[in-house]
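Readers outside the structure-tokenisation community will struggle with the description of the input data as it stands. What matters is that the chain and its backbone geometry are given together, residue for residue. For illustration, here is how one protein appears when written out as sequence plus structure tokens:

…
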Amino acid sequence: MLVDDSSTDSPSGLLGIRSRMQFSGRLDVCTNGQQWSLYLYMGRLIWATGGPHPRRRWHRYLTQHCPQLSPGTIALGSSDPTLLPATDHLPCQDYHTLAILVKRHQISPEQAVAVIRSTVIDVLFDIIQQEETKPVTFKSDAVDMLEASLALLNAEQLLAEVQSQWNVWRSLGLADHSPNLAPVLRHLEQLQEHTPEKVYKMLVSLVDGRRSLRDLAMLMKQDFLQLIRVLVPLYRKGFVALTKIPDLTPPGAARPVSAPNSSSNHSGMPTTGIPRLKIVSSPPLTGSNQAPLIACIDDSLRECQIMERILTEAGYQFVGIQDSVQALPTLIEKKPGLIFLDLVMPIANGYEICAQIRRVSAFKDVPIVILTSNDGIIDRVRAKFVGSSGFLAKPVDVDRVLAVARKVLPLHS
């Protein structure tokens, strides 16, 4: 029987309570159509599953910890009663498969534990990220239990490890970005100019838009936090974009028309069912009247809403960007004709973002107006040096905002 738990508890806090209560069973965490399940026995973690990429995760860690096996050749749904438990319901076939492989002596118990531990860490990270950025609900089921024959992991120790990972991830400005996203390279000529040759060759050979950040880290035999520290500066400069990719296609499933032929790449992860992603530049965001588009980069939601009201009521289209890390990729996608840029923001300030924008040839001549309450001579000189077109004092004045907009982007009937 499923029991609803308070949605105000954090995953780490809830697991801590379960550990002290010697809880056994399944704990579900749900949000935005996604669900993760944690299996516990006497307060210890046995297994974790769910999320957007369960098959990628299985292939990734079986490849990493059991290199003698080929993940694509292991059937997770065997009907042989001597291999799988005698039950009509197998919610964790991958876990049962590990038990079978250990029983057959195809993998060692230590390898099974390594796969389980890596899987649990990934799921815990995703849960903590969801809990910190979106509303989540919790349900517990003391009836649905797994046989605890492979591993009993200390929940508190794993949560402390994952919390440390999350703190680093968040400090890099990636709270809203999942490690399940795939990096895609942009502006290769400029990337080559700004990147050491060794790093550039590595990126071109591995980053193809079909591997998630976690997949790449496994392939490169690096911690995914080490990899993201390399990619974040390139991401901020617009040389790397992050995109969603599908999970691996189960064996026997219909293959998308655009998918390449079934094969295995040098990561050991099959490419069957993974469509190639094309980098397509989006056209400028325009309405039926082809009204000019104006962007405002400001970490304050209220300031963006004020600018949106002023400009849309005057007949312009508007895009507000509150995440400074997402500023350049969004500008490249939307292609506004005028940019208002707040000076004081976390992670990257207005000067840094202005300099990044000016490095993109498409924005060489696009006016960038700095919004600031510090209208000193030093600020003006520094802003001019990084390529700004002018200043507007905060709080913004309606007439001045519209005067700038109409001068740069006059509206036509």
Remarks:
- The chain is about 40% helix and 15% strand.
